[in-house]
UniProtKB/TrEMBL annotation:
InterPro entries: Aim32/Apd1-like. This is Altered inheritance of mitochondria protein 32. Belongs to the AIM32 family. It holds the Pfam family Suc_Fer-like. PANTHER family: ACTIN PATCHES DISTAL PROTEIN 1, ALTERED INHERITANCE OF MITOCHONDRIA PROTEIN 32.
Length: 268
């Protein structure tokens, strides 16, 4: 897997996709729009800033006062940001996503010879980030399992099995599995992830994602640990803010993976 600066998780609400996700709906989709801007020949193309674009089975947030408006939601990791509203009718929101969240704050030295205007175009913009409303910090663990059967039947078989097992084991380890769309209040200021008065030590979302490489290593699992994650003893988690990739997750490994996501240590 090539190193990447950010991974975009597009909340599609689906558990499988065409082999090339940008070809879904005849190319009318968020993955295609992002690749148009940062892919080869795109306005913000930079070979030294690799962004991994994936679809996820998580549902998108619905704008409560305008439910008829088609929008996408997206997670950005390891920045651990959740962007609830990306209207499909506006390409400006896609540019704000790319320019505000996916570009680097400092360019590779190979770009030193570029003009100031060109350099500025390839750098992250705080103003563009503020264009998107109700952006939230991600506080729950993300368990991402490749289930892209449209790309590789092995992932299509192992993905749902691993998803069900994570959802079974995590509550046993005192981790609440969150389901459904992230709800954001009409004023964009409140994120409701569960019962507000219910004491929850840790939370996680478990979802299937599109292809991330490594066909023969199915099932592939990525665990993203939020920056403020703590261990079972209340100490700062040693892997807080990190992503952990696991391959060849088989039946015998399921419980180990769930424990690892909880407290960062293997238990046989």
């Amino acid at each position: 897997m090539v190193a990447y600066s950010e991974q975009v998780l597009i909340c599609s609400g689906k558990s499988d996709w065409p082999s090339r996700i940008e070809e879904e709906s005849s190319g009318d989709n968020l993955a295609a729009d992002i690749k148009e801007l940062i892919g080869r020949g795109g306005m913000y193309s930079d070979p030294y800033n690799n962004v991994l674009i994936t679809n996820a089975s998580f549902p998108s947030t619905i704008l409560s006062h305008r439910p008829e408006l088609l929008t996408n939601s997206a997670y950005i990791v390891p920045s651990f940001k959740y962007i609830p509203f990306l209207p499909r009718v506006s390409f400006d929101s896609v540019q704000a996503l790319v320019k505000g969240f996916l570009l680097p704050t400092k360019l590779h030295p190979a770009h030193d010879s570029l003009s100031p205007i060109h350099k500025d175009r390839l750098l992250k913009s705080k103003e563009q980030a503020e264009f998107l409303p109700a952006v939230k910090d991600v506080k729950e663990m993300l368990v991402l399992i490749c289930g892209h059967g449209g790309r590789d039947v092995r992932c299509g078989i192992t993905g749902p099995i691993l998803q069900a097992e994570f959802e079974r084991v995590l509550p046993v380890k005192d981790v609440q599995v969150l389901k459904g769309a992230v709800e954001v209040g009409d004023n964009g200021a409140t994120e409701l992830l569960g019962a507000p008065n219910e004491p929850v030590i840790k939370t996680a979302r478990v979802g299937l994602i599109s292809h991330i490489g490594g066909h023969k290593f199915a099932g592939n699992v990525i665990l993203y640990i939020p920056p403020k994650m703590t261990t079972m003893d209340g100490e700062a988690h040693p892997l807080a803010g990190c992503g952990i990739w696991q391959g060849w997750e088989k039946d015998r490994d399921r419980d180990r993976s769930s424990v690892f996501a909880t407290n960062g240590s293997w238990r046989e």
